[in-house]
Request: fold
Amino acid sequence: MRSSNGSSNDYILATSIQQYSSSTIVLQKTDDNNSTELNEFGHDYTQIGGPIDTYLCTLSETEIHERIRTRMHHKLKREYKEADRIQEELKQCGVILDRNRMWRADGSNSFPQTQLGRSRSVKSSNIKGGATSSGVGQIRKLSTSSGSYDNRDRGTSGKRGRQQLNEYGHDYTKVGELNKSICTLSEIEINNMLRSRMECRIKRDYQQADMILKELEQCGVAISDNAKLWRADGEKSFPLDQMSENIKSLALSNSKSTNKIPRMMDCRTLDDAIKAIYDNLDRVSPRDISAFWTVVPRLLRHQERGVHLVPQLEAIFLKTADQIHSYGPQDLTTTTLGFAKTIQALQESKRGYGSGSYEEYLHGILITQRDAVFSFIARTAVPILHQFQPRYLKDIAYAYALLEFVPKLDDESNLFDHIAEKSIPLLGKFKPQHISITVWAFEKVKASHPKLYEKVGDHIVMLDHLDDFASQALSNIIWAFAKAGVSHPDLFKKVADHIISLEHLNDFKPQELSNIVWSYAKAKVSHPNLFNKVADHIITRQHLNDFKPQELANIVWAFEKANVSHQDLYKRVGDHVFSLDHLNKFQPQNLSNILIAYAKAEVPHHGLFNKVADHIVSLEHLNDFQPQDLSNTQYSYAKAQVSHLDLFNKVADHIVLLDNLDDYNEQHISNLAWAYHKAGVIRQDLNDKLIDASVGRKEEFSSWKLNNLYHWTSSEKEGIQNQESVVDQKEEEEEYPDVSVLSVDQVKDKLRKLGLPVNGRNKEQLMSSYSWVRFQHAAKEMEIDDLTLDDDFSWDIVDQEEEEGKEEDDPDASIQEDFSLLTVVQLKDRLRNLGLPVSGRKQELIDRLNDHFEL
Reply:
């Protein structure tokens, strides 16, 4: 820019930053006293459009503002080449800048003419010193259809941007007449609430906006956010001929007359998008069609019942199928990702598929034929995979991860093998988000590729710093390594040291905090300072309402598993759960994991335990509780010495009424018997059920657990016998004393008297044989007739040192079984009983069981 006298305009930052109510920064131009207001991010660009699409844009919002601000500084110094480089970099990362001081990163490249933002033509030459007379609250007059309402600059960089508002201060149009017999609000009240809702959405207070919408609907007001219409005449639908002019013109305009295909991101409904492509089907490019499939998932979620153009949609799909083999990397990945997200939207939809609906058609071609469609795409992608940039490699992996589908190729390799092969040499060009999504995708589909994990870990460790990694990227990377069971101590240390060095953790979402500590505990990587940093952050939060039940459960589980004692954290989480109105959002697994963490960490919190017990007792049934959930729950109450008779009776009643206990393994049965014994709750019907389930399953029980089971169940029976029965019991104990009081020679004598072999057996086998005989005797006393003992039976031997370290009255160590002691056949039986896959090598089977029972 040049002044009228030809001299250059030397821009400098004002030495004294003017502070307004919203901390507006003023940029002064020294030659003519003109000024431009800067926002709180230090630049004068305004965000428009939708929220940042994190899968199309590789930068966080903070990084975007930083680059825009840096670019502005370069322009002030006349370093236009560097400024252009930054603009190009932003564009490559999915951020588009407009000459009218606007930016967007939602996948669209359009900038409406009505949204002028802070235009270069807007100056304040009449104000000396560069400050505006009214500060941030300055009112900008925008032309409206009625001309009677002044649109105010709300000083937001939210996704709605600046809008043309009507005389009521919002952008919704009334349809029909107000029916006072149906609607309980006046028209003034409706308009006020619509304006308040719009302002909440501008401020991104979506929770309050949704509350206003719900209240309007309850009062008889129907709203169409897509069409910007409202009505209170008893009707709920909004016909096409009553849509606002801008939408109707988009939906019904003839694109050929303007010789331009409408941008997909500007379409408000799926009808609009289908018509825009179908009307130009003979001249649309692959880029146009891939853009169409990008918006389908979003529009499908908000599609209102009404006009359906299924034949036109079918024509677009057939066009895609005919041409996709010739697509380049960008169009191929964009289309594939659109297909995957469409399937995801269909699966998440809570409304049924209407006959002839879009959902019904898309389900038929994408879900019913999923394997065929995505296998074909994989075969198309592999030959050109060498042309893929890092972002496209990431996108194709992410698309298949959403489906949890790994297509096999003709040479018996799979798509992820080829993605890894092409990605490793390019890791230096991968952005942090690319890396995180890639390893997340590999773990999501269980695509084992140790070399990729190793190279990713080495690459991150070699970086000077991790400042470019967003919190989500760090969380996803660590989670993927831990979940995949890949050890990389240097990586875990690098990430932990970085997080500890941060001034605060305010940028970390609850799920990210939960995943991080869970991953370190899962990977058995000790880093107490990291755990304490996370705990200190959590306890200083104003509330924990934004933590989901799963996140709370994972956090306390991780702290106990990592053996990090932080009493304040346990108290804060326990107090939060106790303060909730109800626990209906907590899954049984969430509850059992929270309880067992407190019990094993020996952290008392009777309020928490009573709250959970009362919730479980209030349930109509316990059919949603898995055996592991019930056994861990009862174990926790007994371990924590919290008495709650109603809970123990509720669980016992549930188990006794089951047809069988085939789903209950040795761990579950042992833990339940111990818990009831430890808590002093006598339920002989439950004991009989547990013993009945144990007979005939001797291959699952080690000798010490068999002895404990006999002791725990028989001791409860002993508590309800009369004096005469007690005398008989003592006589029986003399005949079959506890194995722990016998020497090896005494055990051999007992076995010889029973006609059982004693030669060639080690101490453990002898003890096991005698334990089974003792248990057999107890079973016969309870009139269980199907207990048999083969002469040549043998037990799986547990390491003696491990065995001697266990305490009889505390089966704590049995909470997590050592599955490596089982045979492949036994492992597969366990997996089948749990409904889990049984394919793979022995170690894969063990890992699968460990993952299931650990969380």
Notes: The beta strands are 11-13, 25-29, 35-38, 46-47, 96-98, 102-104, 173-174, 222-224, 229-231. The chain has a mean pLDDT of 76. The longest strand covers residues 25-29.
